[in-house]
Design brief:
643 residues; five-stranded antiparallel beta sheet; alpha+beta; 59% helix; three-stranded antiparallel beta sheet
């Protein structure tokens, strides 16, 4: 390698992704490793045989960073050699002595304006182009011709055309045309403007859930191919491109395995790979790929590669060493158990780790049996449901039930705390009353009256406490449920049926409990049930507390929302405007309940078709919520969303 070549290689190394480290100094680099790699490049350029293992053995104190950077250097050197071979092999189809490759392709392929070469791979050259008739951005892929490619490569190329032609999925690149031009095979597909998966992830700091949502889309696309009997066999970041909207697109089905031979001449497809030949990319390969025989490869092979992909997406590392002699790497794939991802990324959920490790089981029977099953478990995790990969223990299922129904359980917990606190407070009050009675004999009658009131309040607190435990929560006790799955709706329904009896002659407590149950029904989308309890609560509060009481106003605001959702717009509008005026007068313009009343009134106006009034009120409400609650408060986001 001459000086120019060394500089070119050094520039290529500077583009190595951040998770592999920087080779030549820099903020994150190590000066000793940088100097060592400079020396390796110079020695190899002069023709000296310098093996990676020789360097590692002599500098083990620099591991593991040295091994990672030697691996990246090896990939860059390999890419340089392949690029030089490719440039020679593709001269006939991509270069003319007088005209550029893009101009040559445009002249030979009418209907397309070729803009520029996009990239070169091991099998073909890809150009970015515009389809003249539709003005659609497309990519044109030409097979590499020359001494390094033969019938098997052309068969694989044609096979990819047929595979992409039968797949229709938003996350799989779509093919539009194919044929030959000047003896070169080509096909036209969607141009995905974006970045490979690893580059996309390295440029962003995504949470675990954001990564899993992206991964779910990849699994869904792989499953679409599986449903057509197609196993990709080469899933890796460079074959998954992320567009500007953050949507993944799976590319390159040239190494795919088809379950049946209905796509063409069976003998042609069998000749694409030889028995025992490795097919795929080593770091992402499954044990059955590393073992050799292709008859063991099926849908679960892609599941394993998806597991390696997810492991790398979450940790930036591989589940076992992939640097070193090929034989050792293949043995790691075949035998070495994967590192637990939670040891590489702190705070990783146990469910996520279970999903990853199930994908990476060495025996196919122990993995997810399809990409669909894997996608389902990822979705179950994202929706706070128990995943299928874990044993369904009682504690685990209860934890997931609470996570899925945070609002109702928070309501029950809050009610329990309030009742307990109320009971304690009443007990303290009773003790104080008794002490005052002992110290002030002259006020014995007053003290006796207070004691009686305290006892009455304590009785009320006990009644509420017994209602919570015996009426609301008792229906979920295993002995009463008798094995049935008790839903939150059933708990609320059972409680609602017992309110009249539990709080007879205690209207204020009844109204408070009914208002809370009504809001809970509303949050669950059960608006008819919510309306019944909110109407009863509001009627009691008007009689016992008055129109201007804050509890009455809050119940009316909740009722307005329910009437709106039930499409009772006339009644909702008639109630919303005076309620807002009352809130402004009693609570003030910037009170959170006043802002909620304004928000609901604006929503009712929108539903009634009074668009301009609705927008104006929404804008004032959003401005007030930003000022009072802050920019990142959930209610501020809600106002922004509605506006």
């Amino acid at each position: 390698m001459d000086l120019v070549g060394m500089n070119k290689l050094r520039n290529r190394l500077a583009g190595v992704p951040a998770d592999q480290g920087k080779f030549f100094g820099g903020r994150d680099g190590d000066e000793r490793i940088s100097q060592l790699l400079e020396d390796v490049i110079r020695r190899r350029s002069s023709g000296e045989e310098v093996g990676d293992q020789q360097i590692v053995d002599a500098h083990r104190h620099l591991l593991p960073e040295l091994a990672q950077k030697l691996s990246a250097l090896h990939r860059v050197e390999l890419a340089e050699r392949q690029s030089r071979q490719s440039d020679t092999a593709t001269k006939d189809c991509t270069k003319d002595d007088h005209v550029s490759g893009s101009r040559w392709l445009s002249d030979g392929l009418p209907g397309y304006e070729v803009l520029h070469e996009d990239h070169r791979g091991g099998q073909g050259v890809v150009y970015r182009a515009t389809q003249a008739r539709t003005h659609r951005d497309v990519a044109i892929k030409l097979i590499r011709e020359g001494p390094f490619h033969g019938p098997a490569d052309r068969a694989r190329f044609e096979r990819e055309v047929r595979i992409l032609g039968r797949l229709r999925h938003p996350n799989i690149v779509t093919i539009h045309d194919s044929g030959t031009v000047a003896g070169c095979h080509y096909f036209v597909m969607d141009y995905i403007e974006g970045h490979p998966l690893d580059t996309y992830l390295s440029s962003r700091s995504l949470s675990v859930k954001q990564i899993l949502r992206l991964f779910w889309k990849i699994c869904d696309a792989v499953n679409a191919a599986h449903l057509h009997g197609i196993t990709h066999r080469d899933l890796k970041p460079s074959n998954i491109r992320i567009d500007k909207q953050g949507e993944p697109h799976i590319l390159d089905f040239g190494l795919a395995k088809v379950a049946s031979e209905e796509m063409g001449d069976a003998s042609q497809w069998r000749n694409v790979t030889m028995t025992g030949q490795f097919v795929g990319s080593v770091p992402w390969a499954s044990p059955e790929q590393a073992d050799g025989p292709t008859d063991r490869i099926d849908l679960r092979t892609d599941v394993y590669s998806l597991g390696v992909l997810l492991f790398h997406m979450l940790t930036g590392r591989f589940p076992y060493p992939i640097v070193g002699p090929m034989r050792e790497v293949l043995m790691h794939i075949l035998e070495t158990e994967p590192v637990r991802p939670s040891t590489l990324r702190k705070g990783l959920d146990e469910d996520v780790e279970t999903i990853v490790l199930k994908c990476l089981a060495k025996e196919p029977d122990r993995r997810y049996q399809s990409a669909a099953a894997l996608a389902e478990d990822v979705d179950r995790y994202l929706t706070q449901q128990p995943i299928q990969a874990r044993s369904p223990s009682t504690i685990y299922q209860i934890r997931k039930l609470v996570a899925r129904n945070k609002l109702p359980f928070a309501f029950v917990a809050t009610l329990f705390i309030l009742v307990s606190g109320f009971a304690i407070w009443m007990s303290v009050l009773y003790a104080r009353t008794a002490a005052e009675r002992n110290r002030a004999t002259a006020a014995e009658q007053t003290a006796e009256q207070r004691r009686a009131e305290a006892e009455q309040s304590a009785e009320l607190a006990q009644a509420v406490n017994e209602f919570l435990i015996n009426d609301m929560l008792a229906s979920a006790v295993p002995e009463i449920a008798q094995g049935r799955k008790i839903t939150v709706e059933e708990v609320l329904e059972n409680a609602a049926l017992r309110i009249d009896e539990a709080f007879r002659n205690q209207p204020v407590f009844e109204a408070s409990v009914r208002a809370t149950i009504g809001r809970t029904y509303s949050s669950l989308g059960l608006f008819k049930d919510a309306e019944e309890h909110l109407r009863k609560a509001e009627k009691i509060q008007v009689q016992d507390l008055g129109d201007n009481h804050v509890d009455t106003l809050r119940t009316r605001i909740a009722l307005i929302k329910v009437l709106k959702e039930l499409n009772a717009l006339d009644e909702a509008e008639a109630l919303a405007e005076p309620t807002l005026q009352l809130c402004r007068r009693v609570l003030g313009e910037d009170d959170v309940d006043t802002l909620e009343a304004a928000f609901q009134y604006a929503s009712v106006l929108w539903r009634c078709g009074r668009t301009d009034e609705s927008i104006a009120l929404h804008e004032r409400t959003l401005s007030a919520r930003r000022r009072v609650l802050g920019e990142e408060h959930p209610r501020t986001y809600g106002a922004m969303s509605h506006l």
